[in-house]
Design a protein that fits this description.
2 helices, Alpha-Beta Plaits, alpha+beta, globular, five-stranded mixed sheet
Length: 101
């Protein structure tokens, strides 16, 4: 996929999204959608994720963040469009779980 055909977003998810399997759920869904990027817990109790890939698949992932796994309770999701620099913290062309920041 050429960079012009790719969409990159950053999402901050608020609510009961830590210690409920939210990161693992995001990782599984993003991997299934063949997206690049990362997910991590934030010290403020939120979850941060960056997704890159086919625009339709990125949009599908963004919509699914509102649901999360059954044990989560999502209060809100803030999404911004990003540039390639948003992926500097990842490891290659895959999706990874990063340590809390």
């Amino acid at each position: 996929m050429t960079p012009d055909a790719e969409r990159i977003i950053r999402a901050f998810v608020r609510g009961r999204v830590q210690k409920v399997g939210y990161r693992a759920w995001v990782n599984a869904h993003a991997t299934a959608l063949q997206l690049r990027g990362f997910v991590r817990n934030r010290n403020d109790g939120s979850v941060e994720a960056v997704f890159a890939g086919d625009p339709d698949r990125v949009a599908q992932m963004a919509e699914s963040l509102l649901r999360g796994p059954p044990s989560a309770s999502v209060a809100g999701v803030d999404i911004t469009t990003e540039t390639e620099r948003a992926l500097d913290e990842t490891f290659g062309a895959r999706f990874v779980v990063l340590p809390t920041r």
